Amino acid sequence: MEITGIISALIVGLIIGALGRLVVPGKQHLPIWLTLLLGIVAALLGGWIASFFTGVWLFVLIIQVLVAAAIVYLADGMYSKNASAA
Fold this sequence. Notes:
Largest sheet: none
Mean pLDDT: 80
Number of strands: 0
Number of helices: 3
Shape: elongated
Distance between the termini: 41 Å
């Protein structure tokens, strides 16, 4: 991945995190800053996964949103268990 791809993934990652949060049904317990951070991770990871298949931007975006939704869902489950235990 080139430096321009990394920079665009960071910027798009903020949006991807918000979209991932919208895709997950129900109330999330994650703070918004953590959701955005997870979106950046999902954008990088989703871009990397999609690069194995194609470079079509729409496909990459869909993969990034799906990865973000999965990460937000998993992190929310762990976060809510930790919050209720404290």
